[in-house]
Specification:
This protein has 12 helices and 2 strands. The chain is mainly alpha-helical. The protein folds into 3 domains: 30 residues, no CATH class; 36 residues; 210 residues, MetI-like (MetI-like fold). A two-stranded antiparallel ribbon has the order 1-2. A hairpin with a 6-residue loop joins strand 1 and strand 2. The protein is globular.
């Protein structure tokens, strides 16, 4: 046993990123750990921090520029040109819809159905995925149902859901839930199944129960899988809102798009599409921020 007075943090340790990978030096001195007691992430340059955002913004600008000048470069047929809108027209329509308040009510209806359905999917998918991943017996019992429902297109449930819930909020919530719960459940299940068995056995040997194992080992190691499931669930949830409002709703942004299409208002249709895409982008970015915050303990990998 080493006396406390003689114990010192080693100034440097070597962490191996992957087999045959380059070793990374990580500072674990008391100064690097700081008052919070957590190991600080290695310092990165400012460009490395903003590079993904800058490249993503640049790609969006390029796509919008090509879209804007496409009718001037390529000759479009009169019928195609009649039903084509450029970003400047769509931006003007969006500004008018927000300025007059015409978009707020349908956007609130769609966002409410999206939030409730996705929240219920997270509340059901995460615990059930962890439970099935930790219990082979339950996994064998529920796997046929999960596989069958996940492979079935959600649109086929819409007539039944309209009969059960009527044309309104809860029909859309049910469609969103069915679309979002399975990607999250399946990815969480796979993440739990791929948790490090050696770490689980070590923690169990120290007397940890199932709750401790799930909290300390299973959930942190499953975080990348859960984040992928959340990203897929967000896309499926927005798709569920759009499908439900196209075919089984009386209000919402999707209903506005359908009515605009019937009146040949292409700019309004594109405006609704942009709003749904922006909602998906914002939610996915929030999930990425949460992932970065919760994964600060992972070693930083180097791109070769």
């Amino acid at each position: 046993m080493i006396p406390k007075s003689g114990y010192r943090f080693s100034e440097k340790i070597m962490l191996q990123q992957e087999p045959m990978a380059e070793l990374q030096t990580v500072d674990v001195s008391p100064a690097a750990i700081g008052r919070s007691g957590h190991l600080a992430a290695p310092a990165t340059s400012r460009w490395r921090r903003i590079e993904p955002t800058a490249l993503g913004a640049a790609s969006i600008v390029v796509v919008l520029a090509v879209w804007q000048f496409l009718p001037d470069v390529l000759p479009l047929k009169p019928g195609t040109k009649l039903f084509f809108a450029v970003p400047s027209e769509i931006a003007g329509t969006l500004w008018q819809m927000f300025a007059t308040g015409a978009i707020w009510a349908p956007l609130g209806v769609s966002a409410g159905a999206f939030a409730v359905g996705l929240g219920l999917a997270i509340m059901a998918g995460l615990p059930l995925g962890i439970l099935l991943g930790r219990s082979p017996a339950l996994s064998a019992m529920f796997d046929p149902f999960i596989t069958a429902f996940n492979a079935t297109p959600r649109l086929v449930f819409l007539p039944l859901l309209m009969l059960w819930f009527g044309i309104g909020l809860w029909c859309k919530v049910a469609i969103v839930f069915l679309g979002a719960v399975f990607p999250l459940l399946i990815n969480t299940y796979e993440g739990v199944r791929n948790a490090d068995k050696l770490l689980i056995n070590v923690v169990r040997s120290f007397g940890a129960n199932e709750w401790d194992i799930a909290r300390l080992i299973v959930v942190p190691n499953s975080l990348p899988f859960i984040v992928v499931g959340l990203r897929l669930a967000i896309g499926r949830a927005i798709l569920g809102v759009v499908v439900a409002e196209f075919f089984g709703a009386q209000d919402g942004l999707g209903v506005v798009m359908v009515r605009a299409a019937s009146e040949f208002k292409v700019d309004v249709v594109f405006a609704g599409l942009i709003v749904f895409a922006a909602l998906s982008l914002v939610m996915t970015s929030l999930v990425k921020l949460v992932e970065d915050h919760m994964s600060r303990w992972r070693p930083v990998t180097r791109n070769r």
